[in-house]
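As a warm-up, study this chain.
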Amino acid sequence: MSTAIALPYPGALTDVAGIEVGHASDSRRPTGCTVVLARAGAVAGVDVRGAAPGTRETDLLAPANLVQQVHAVLLAGGSAWGLDAAGGVMRWLEENNIGLRTGYGLVPIVPAAVLFDLGVGDARIRPDAQAGYQACAAAGKQAPAQGNVGAGSGALVGKLLGMARAMKGGIGTASVSAGGHTVAALIACNAVGDVLDPATGRLLAGARSEDGQRLLGTRDALLAGQLPQQLLAGTNTTIGVIATDALLGKAQAQRLAQVAHDGLARAINPVHTMLDGDTLFALGTGASGKPADMLLLATLAAEATARAVVNAAAAARGLRVGDQHWPAARDLIPA
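Now compare it with the structure written out below.
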């Protein structure tokens, strides 16, 4: 029986003024997508650290390129197929008169990143344009659900010793505030590595022992000479969005996305592998009206990211699909 675990860290991406979040979860199998809306537009940056990414519209975010703001970011399961959901996000934005005005019509700017969850249930079912549209329709300013929802529905972690010894991942969010700024993160964790709480060093979810009853510790197993299983590249990936109410330029947004990966490195081990496509977006809504103190914001971004990863593992619930079962942190760790 699962043991209830309170989420370790407070806050949500929606604590940042100007940000809304919506999930669409597919009832036919564990998959889905999550949309981060910025109706008034947000300056955006991106940083890709994993070696097997699945992305859309990331080139637009380079500081030297033309487009200055985005209107939404899509996070989705379904591997490359899940990028189709961005079309539904664009349709919803256009219907709501949100987008880049070109003189020939609105063009909503929707960068996206996907994770691989095709090994969980029927791989023919993946997020599509309708799922993206539904996630937008469900978006709001309230704190979003965490765990087995949206882009985290089919997420697993700790797969380096084989899928049978993995555990349930999920989506998590957290926020921190200091110096008049709020910085928050929303992370869908589908890592090949383990998840740990950097505040305590405690493993929360990851590769399990052969009997499946305890956490093995992937790092320790590798250091002891245990060889990883041969997994297909890209069958993992942690993706997410970091947002702040500070006034950012595109170069600052890119930098914020870069340093947020430090938070992934604190909470996931190993991370940024050849089997992952780890990608983080950063958004600046400017709602505070205050210019960025990049040293402060960078510190807050890494911390919020690490906390969101921990919440993703803590919020997850065990998953059974056919004869496969992946327990969650709450199933192995006492409250």
